[in-house]
Amino acid sequence: MSPLDLLDVDSSLSAEERQIRAVVRQLVDEQVRPHVAGWYEEGRVPARELAREFGRLGLLGMHLTGYGCAGSSAVAYGLACLELEAGDSGVRSLVSVQGALAMYAIWRYGSTEQKQHWLPAMAAGETIGCFALTEPDHGSDPASMTTRARRDGDDWVLHGTKMWITNATIADVAVIWARTDEGVRGFAVPTSTPGVAVREIRRKMSLRASVTGEISLDDVRLPAAARLPDAVGLKAPLGCLTEARHGIVWGALGAARDCLETTLEYAGSRTQFGRPLAGFQLTQAKLADMAVEWSKGYLLALQLGRLADAHRLRPDQVSVGKLNNVREALAIARQCRTILGANGVSGEYPVLRHANNLESVLTYEGTSEIHQLVIGQRLTGLSAFA
Questions:
Q1: Which residues contact 34 (CB under 8 A, 6 or more apart)?
Q2: What is the CATH number of domain 129-232?
């Protein structure tokens, strides 16, 4: 049993869930850990190669059913996200955006023809998707989006800009959300369509082992069959975000666990004033507090996963998980850095890389403030968004 599992939470996992976790952990140990520090430093990642490997193991859209998807439980998917983010948040983001945003949007809101056309290849990692909701001037306020889609005969014409889109520069299909005369609608847009231009966002200080881009839509003409027929209103993209946030609740724990495991090993072997750092009271107090918060986050994630598998998970409950687990994971990463001292800022150790990544995770798919307001509305019955 891991020393971090203070409450023996692992004992409540099924044999299948533990097996899936072990397979993903081995994949990360073999395919990610030996290379990720270099990817981060260079600001690149072999995303297509990783996607095919993830597809081979059934990790892409693994919690969806049919069309080549594995149909795994929500808890199994969460454990996979945890292990992936123990490698790097950017690697987990690749899987989350592919499966829980782009694939889920098509799976949940698309036509049978759209599902048959896109999902099998996406599940295999041969086709890459992205999810384009955020705009340069509209992040936390998607209701104010300015990207427009207008009818022109039987076609749709899209115009606008999307920003901070994971997988954008390698995507074969982009799920684009746009305002129409009938409200917000979703479209499955092949990125090879004339008028679609993608620019990679460089010089990031966070999520450097992840592909991020800007998508410009200059009067992009699409057939009627490109519209996701069941994606009606802003509720549709927000439903996709709820799906993806569940993976983040688990994933953030992976980054925190990797920081803690690294720090435990370091503190046990690093000698100061004649004894290991781990033998000092202040160090043990820090480790104890972090392990307690990690254990609480693990219990929270597992409860949300069980609710999801019982089809009882509410968006505000996911907000509780995202707010708590990402906030605490970032605090753990920062505290671990203090125990490693100057070595904590070195790329030889993963701690500051995780901390930098978690700064982005704290913001994307709902800032902490947004989730506080979601929870506040649940508690009071009053909306404070406007």
A1: none
A2: 2.40.110.10
Q: Which two structure tokens, joined as six digits, stand for 260?
A: 């803690």
pTM of the model: 0.96
pLDDT over 90 for what percent of the chain? 97
228 phi, psi to nearest 5 deg: -75, 110
Mean pLDDT, the chain, as a whole number? Answer: 97
Domain ranges of the chain: 9-123, 129-232, 236-380
Dump the DSSP string for 52-89.
Answer: HHHHHTT-TTTTSEETTEE---HHHHHHHHHHHHHH-H
- Residue 162 DSSP SS3: strand
Tens digits of per-residue pLDDT, 124-146? 999 999 999 999 998 888 889 99
17 an active-site residue? no
Closest CA to 214 of 144, 139, 136, 138: 136
Find the angle CA(251)-CA(131)-CA(249) to the nearest 5 degrees. Answer: 15
Are 212 and 200 in contact, with CB atoms under 8 Å apart? yes
Half-sphere exposure of residue 113: CA atoms within 13 angstroms, side-chain side? 7
Residue 72 or residue 2, greater confidence: 72
- The DSSP code sequence of 143-155 is GG---EEEEETTE
For the segment(s) 9-123, the CATH number from 1.10.10.10, 1.10.150.20, 1.10.540.10, 1.10.620.20 is: 1.10.540.10
Predicted confidence (pLDDT) per residue in 31-64, tens digit? 999 999 999 999 999 999 999 999 999 999 999 9
Looking at the domain covering 236-380, what would its CATH class be? mainly alpha
10 Å Cβ neighbour count for 255? 31
Report which of 45, 170, 31, 43 is spatially closest to residue 98, judged by C-alpha positions: 170
Give the dihedral sign, CA 80/81/83/84: positive
Q: What are phi and psi of 193, to 5 degrees?
A: -65, 135
| In the chain, beta strands by DSSP E | 65-66, 69-70, 129-132, 148-152, 155-166, 173-180, 183-190, 196-200, 212-222, 227-232, 271-272, 275-276
What does the pLDDT look like over 29-39, one tens digit per residue?
999 999 999 99
| pLDDT higher than threshold 80 for residue 1 | no
CA atoms of 77 and 250, how far apart (whole Å): 9
CB 358 within 8 A of CB 255: yes
Catalytic residue chosen out of the listed positions 49, 359, 365, 369: 365
